[in-house]
Each structure stands twice: as C-alpha cells, then as structure tokens.
Amino acid sequence: MTTLIVIDQAPYGSWSGREALDMAFSLAAFDQPVSLLFCDAGVNWLRQGQQATELGQKTVEKNLAAAPMFGVEAILADGPACQRYGLDDSNLLAGVTRVEAVEPIIARHTDVLFAG
Amino acid sequence: MSSTALSYTLVITGAPWASQAPQTALEFARALLAAGHRLDRVFLYGDGIHLASALATPPSDEPNWPRQWAEFLAAHQVPAVACIASTLRRGLVNETEQARYELPASNLLAPFEIAGLGEWVEGRLKTDRTVYFHGSGA
Amino acid sequence: MTDTPNTHTLHLLNKAPEHSRFARCLQSLQPGDSLVLMENAVLALANSGLSLPEPCYALQADVRARGLSTLNGRHTLIDYQELVQLTADNPRIISW
Questions:
Q1: Which residue among A15, B33, B61, B132 is least enclosed by CB atoms within 10 Å?
Q2: What are the TM regions of this chain, as residue ranges (chain C) (predicted)?
C-alpha cells in the first residue's frame, strides 16, 4: 500500500512543495511506504544546479536529496512536463525516474494525495 | 450503498478567506455526523492552520470560520490538531510554544491543539476514510 | 512497489477549469470512477467547451451560489449528505 504524494507546484514560489515533502518524510518515518510524483510545473524541483542563496532559501534539491535516506521508495517525474521544461538526462537530478504518463501511476497507487 | 457507520479523518489545507476549504469541510463534517458516522479527528496543515487563529476578526456581518469551527469541535468533542511545523512558520502558537520560543503572545484558538504530522499518519491508519479539503489553488 | 486498487475512485475536484489540476483530474478518471465538482470546479457546468464524464455530481450549494442551478446537463446535483454518502461508498478518494 504505497502512498503517492503528488507535487505539481513549482519550487520556491510557494512553500507547498516543501510541505508535501514533509508529509512524505513523515510517512516514511512511521514505516509507511511512500513515493513522490512530480508533475506539471512541479518537475522544476528536479533540475540540477539550483542556487537559491539569493532568495534566502535552501535549495529544494537539498531537501530532495534526503528522500532516499528517509526511505522514500521512488521519485517519479512527469515525462511530458520534463520535455516541456527542458529536463532530460543531462540536467535531471540523479535517482529520478521519468514516466511516460502520470495517469497510470496515479491509477495504480491505492492512496494518492496532494499536500495542498 | 453502505449504511455502516465509518470513522473519518478530515484534513484541511486551505486557509479561511483565501479559500472555501474550511467552509466546505465544516458542512461536510456536520453532514457526516448527521449520517451517523464518527469524526475521529481534524488535522490542519499548511495554510489550513490559519483556521485555528484566535485573532481572526472579520466584520460582524461576515462569518467567523475559526469560531464556527471551534464551536462545532467543542459541541461534538472532536479533537482538532494543527501541524506544529506549519503553525510555527506562520505565527500561530499556543502557550507552550510561546514559552519555548520566548514569544510575546500566543494565539491558538481552543479547542484546537498543536502537534506533529504523526497525528495525521495515525489518523490515516486508524480511520476508515481520510478526506482532504484543499485551497482553490495558486 | 504499487498495488492495483480493486475499487473505483471518487474524485473530489474543487479547482476552476483553467487550473492545471482540473485537466489532470479529468485525464485521470478510469472507467467506473465518479467525479464530484465542488467550489470553483462547478464553473465547468457553464463552460460549454468542456465535456464532462459520467457520472458527474455537482455540489448544489456551490452551483446555486454561482447562479448555475438552471443549467441543464447530465450532472446530478448533490447536497453535503449525499457527498458524505459518496465518500462512504468509495474507499478510494482523491481530493484534487
């Protein structure tokens, strides 16, 4: 019974993606299987080379790097959105799996939720 | 059609006045109790924590969503928890957190309480249904 | 690891038709799923360019508030009690 947490909001412009990640880490901390799906503008979380010091924020790349350590099962990315935003093997974070379409991923998880 | 009584966890992530979420959730909560189901707990997350502010003071001819929720929770003895990480960031604290962080005031509306995401995890495991009420979207 | 749910899904959609999650929700509907339009999503009833799936429920309070109750369509108006019943009948619920 893996829970799928969907992040469709762009990074930095709001806090909702980070709060979605907190939910994922918290499930993992309680030994509840969880995966992350980044779709639409949310795929921009997954770009290499983010530098957020001028915004006074930590890079979300750093937040996300902790995901495997916390026991998050998979980090999935919306393939068509990656293509729209110029994300490919050369600039996508390591450990991310691109999927051809998000609908089958949503359909095969029992629990699917957004953080906001 | 199922007629058995079920237990529910409601999660509100949309803020009052920025979204309809608290209002929709309140009508839903009233209807579920009327149908004989049990409301196990309410969890406020993200911007939804603003519902637990004791200081919201809308004009007198407008509904006061935090107060309506507080009255509903008290009347039906439903536990309601605002996520601590969400509340501290947004300036919503109880007396314990006020003392811990040496803040000038506390503003958590009773009977709301402050606790961690573990409350949400437990609610999902223990109850038959977890229903989310999100904002209208940025 | 994933599991194939053996039940249909109740989709609770509260976003306006222009929100990206609106289209995402409609694309994610599987045969046998039910859709509930609530809050801003009920505006879809007034948008003749949209084809809505069946069964499609719309929350009456939201429809009335927006002056859309005279619209004809294949949607079914429901109150909060009926919304609760739908959530009781469907273990798998996604709030969009």
A1: B61
A2: none
Please report the ipTM that was assigned to this predicted complex: 0.94
C53 in reach of chain A (CB within 8 A): no
What stretches of A12-113 show up as alpha helix (H) in DSSP?
A: 16-29, 60-65, 67-70, 79-84, 103-108
Structural domains present in chain C: 9-95 (3.40.1260.10)
Instruction: Name the residue in chain C with its Cα closest to that of B132.
Output: C95
pTM of the model: 0.95
Q: Using a CB-CB distance cutoff of 8 angstroms, which residues of chain B are in contact with residue C38?
A: 24
In the Cβ-directed half-sphere of B109, how many Cα atoms lie within 13 Å? 22
| Residue C71, min C-alpha distance to chain A (Å) | 30
Mark whether B83 is an active-site residue: yes
Tell me if chain B has a CB within 8 Å of the CB of A58: no
From the candidates B26, B32, B52, B83, give the one annotated as an active-site residue: B83
Q: What's the pLDDT tens digit per position in C12-67?
A: 999 999 999 999 999 999 999 999 999 999 999 999 889 899 899 999 999 999 99
Please state the domain extents for chain B.
Answer: 7-55+62-133
- Cα separation, B9 vs B82, in Å, equals 13
Q: 3-state DSSP call for residue A99?
A: strand
Question: Are the beta carbons of C16 and B137 separated by less than 8 Å?
Answer: yes
Interface test with A, best of B43, B45, B88, B129 (most A CBs within 10 A): B45
> Closest residue of B to A41, CA-based?
B138
Please state the CATH superfamily assignment of the domain spanning residues B7-55+62-133 in this structure: DsrEFH-like (3.40.1260.10)
Helix (H) or strand (E) holding B67: helix B65-76
